Amino acid sequence: MNLFDIIGPIMIGPSSSHTAGAARIGRVTRMLLGEEVKKAEIYFHGSFAKTWEGHGADRAVIGGLLGLSVADERMRLSRELAAEKGMAYTIEPIQLREAHPNTVIINAFGAGGKQVKVQAASVGGGSIFVQYLNDMEVGFSGERTTLIIQHRDTPGAIAQVSQMLAWARMNIATMRVFREDKGGRAVMALELDSVPEDKLLTSLRAMDAFENVTLLEKL
Amino acid sequence: MDHSVKSLLEQAGGNIAAIARQWQLQNDVHAQSVEELDAYMHEVLSVMRDSAVKGMEKDLRSVRGLTGGNAYKLMEGVKAGKTAGGSLIGRMAARALAVAECNAAMGRIVAAPTAGACGILPAVLLTLQEEYGYTDDQLVNALYVAGAFGLVIAHRASISGAQGGCQAECGSAAGMAAAAIVYLKGGDAAQAADACSFALMNLLGLVCDPVKGLVEVPCVFRNVGAISIALTAADMALSGIVCPIPCDEVIDAMRQVGDALPSSLRETGEGGCAGCPSMCK
In this structure, what DSSP letter does residue A195 have? Predict the structure, then answer.
């Protein structure tokens, strides 16, 4: 936590956890999808399921899926904005076992045929934590500039990423790797001390081992 | 970094705002210079100002309609001479309601330290500016001072109602605002710490009991109570009254009290005001 988490964030009310956090979860889902959202299935668990209407958590998630930031005044009218932009959505309560009280699951379908499923919790003060990505257990917050790489578990994959970041003279602050099975689906989450240039992202995306490269920035 | 008011006072040598800037520069991923930090703080001030104006609208209503339009009523009451407390505190109270109601109506606000307690700092700073003519640069410095105390509170105790009750939200904001007032009125760093202590000890034990789980009742009205405590706490310190308990110990006590609160009084919407029969219909 830093001083601007105390004097900030600048956000649309009424609740940092139920509104700003919800918007960030929508936004991170859109970023992970990597294209415009055509349709989204939204599931609210716990306290979200009880108070989503009064806290505008529905409008916040929808706003985030449309790419709005937590401070965007169009949040209040995001349902209308979704209709205008042709984004369909459904909202249902869900009961999960052993999940944080403010958890959302979003199954998002993109305009170009991509699909992503995200389970994330709003953990307070507008901060979020992504717990599952496409049903695989992960763990990242996106609080710092974060590179999310979805790949196959193959020898050298991590070396390739760190090599390319080193060439770009970029420092890795923290790094976590998640994987399903040996040789199966894997995810790397790298928190960086600076923001990578587009050129670097393009080269990372061109690598055979990497299925999806997402930059999470300024959620 | 040692998170204590004691070390803050030792490092600051009287200039808390400068230390706060240094802390942020070390931790900010995006900002590379003090100028960039200050640009953000000026934006904060401008959002606070807009929210105080928007929340003053007569016909403002929250999403569920539990609050809205009260800031307008209070400001009109103050102008018409109906209130007992006088103009300064009346205008400050009306602004606290305005920002808190703007928040409840899904308007844009600055969480300071949280959305539920967002009315306190803007009400205090903007009304003191109106009264005494402080510049925006002075208000920005006051925000850094408030932020420094808030950061210590967040690390030693909590700024989350779900964790520590409303003392952690409106209480923290009142403590931060009291320190900011002392800064603006020319008090020294030790007096700012005393003001923070006085405000915190007055709100120790305050429970978080939102009706229907929403940031409306009693939240918006508690923002008003908190400004009066911040103001009187700062006045005590500015007059040379020394708080018998060091600020760090008051903050630690707040943590212990928060830990002792039952879950029904920590943002679950069950006990306290939320449990009142007429609010459970």
Answer: P
